[in-house]
Amino acid sequence: MPRIDGQRLLRDLRQLAEFGRYKTGVHRPTYSPQDVEARRWLVERLQEAGLMAEIDGIGNIMSTSPAKGPKLLIGSHLESQPHAGWLDGAMGVIYGLEVARAFREDPTCRDLGIEVAVFADEEGHFGSFLGSRSFIGELSEDDIAKAANRTTGQSLPEALAEAGYAGRPRYVLEAGRHVGFIEAHIEQGDTLESSGKRIGVVTSIVGIWTYAITFEGQQNHAGTTRMAARKDAGVALTELCHAVAQRFPEVAGLRSVWTTGRIRLEPGAASIIPGQAEMIFQFRDADPERLRAMELELEALVAQSDAAGPCTASLRPLSRSIPNVMAEPVQAALDQAAERHAPGSAMRMPSGAGHDAQYLARRLPAGMVFVPSIGGISHHWTENTADADLVLGCQVLATAGEALLRRPESGHAEA
Ligand code: GLV
Ligand code: MN
Ligand code: MN
After folding, report:
1. Which one of 310, 317, 391, 403 is at 20 to 30 Å from 14 when CA atoms are compared?
2. Protein residues with CB under 6 Å of any ligand 1 atom
């Protein structure tokens, strides 16, 4: 059985967190100088682990193992949300590195290939799952040409050129090369902690649908414009937020969630009636029909706001990621590995966060393993996981990986 080195794993995780360090977390937006440096650092670590590793034309890192026969692909992402945590994405990448090293160091596993992938922009600074979509052949050159940074407006081609990735080929998954894909991740919620469990075996991953809703009114003087004569885009926006809060529970499922993550009022001054307002609105569910029902409700509410006046309202979809279910054989291998290393510590659970695994699952048997997030906190710099859980999760991944590679279908013999 491959034995991971817990101290080496923790040391690499902490070293990676130095790239873009922010308080106790990291600020490492996609293609920022900190992100580019982190990618370069990881390529060197993968090469030291005996893999061939390179960065491609979208910023993905793909590594290849010299081992013969089908391989297991392990990976996640390196960029972070703004001012966020040190483990989201990074943990799954360093787990891949550590598992590759553990296989190489074990004479009985040396010829079982572990390959590590890093998918760019899972966090959606420029788009929706750019790296994993590129890797499965579902991202066109036109998609790249049209994408821009959601905060700064910088075009994706310009950002790729600045990072030094423009013009490089983009790696595409080779059919038949891998027995499957596993992404390890922090849970980012409190289900494991509140259930007293240490390992989550993921059953499904949500789709995330995101929109910009824009209101046009009339910018004017906040003191001299009579209330009845105003066209206040800020009022129209808050009324829509209220309507969503009233109506969405009627169409939502048990696990549906929705968020207004950003509101912008123009020009945004105390003495000016906002002439324009924009909100970024997102909802999530694992059921495609439920997602469509929520979209229809949102379209109806925006149309009602527009018809009622005095401001106009319009809806623009920004992205619609595709939900997916995880492969049963991968779930079973993770259950068994967890039972071996920490009996009674695992539970199956759906993921309310989006992950690259939902796109890899379109081409490969894919699965995910979660470890607990302390206090259920994530997308915040205080995000953390107990060291013992970080080590356990990686060992569970290594053991499950060996089992998958040794299944008769994989073409490798029993040890
Ligand atoms: C991914 O980070 C998500 O927001 O679910
Ligand atoms: Mn993540
Ligand atoms: Mn995230």
Report:
1. 403
2. 123, 353-354
Which CATH topology does 6-206+323-410 take?
Aminopeptidase (3.40.630)
- Protein residue whose Cα sits closest to atom 2 of ligand 1: 123
**Closest-approaching ligand to the CA atom of 80:** 3
Does domain 215-320 correspond to CATH entry 3.30.70.360?
A: yes
In the reported structure, the alpha carbon of residue 353 is separated from the centroid of ligand 1 by a whole-number distance in angstroms of: 5
How would residue 413 be classed by pLDDT, with cut points 50, 70 and 90?
A: low
Query: Can you give the pLDDT at residue 408?
Result: 86
Closest ligand 1 atom number to CA of residue 352: 5
CATH 3.40.630.10 location in the chain:
6-206+323-410
Among all bound ligands, the one having the nearest atom to the CA of 84 is 3
Closest C-alpha to ligand 1, atom 1: 354
pLDDT, one tens digit per residue, over 382-408 is 999 999 999 999 999 999 999 999 998
- The segment(s) of the chain belonging to CATH 3.30.70.360 are 215-320
- CA 31, 74, 389, 328 torsion: positive or negative? positive
pLDDT value of residue 410:
82
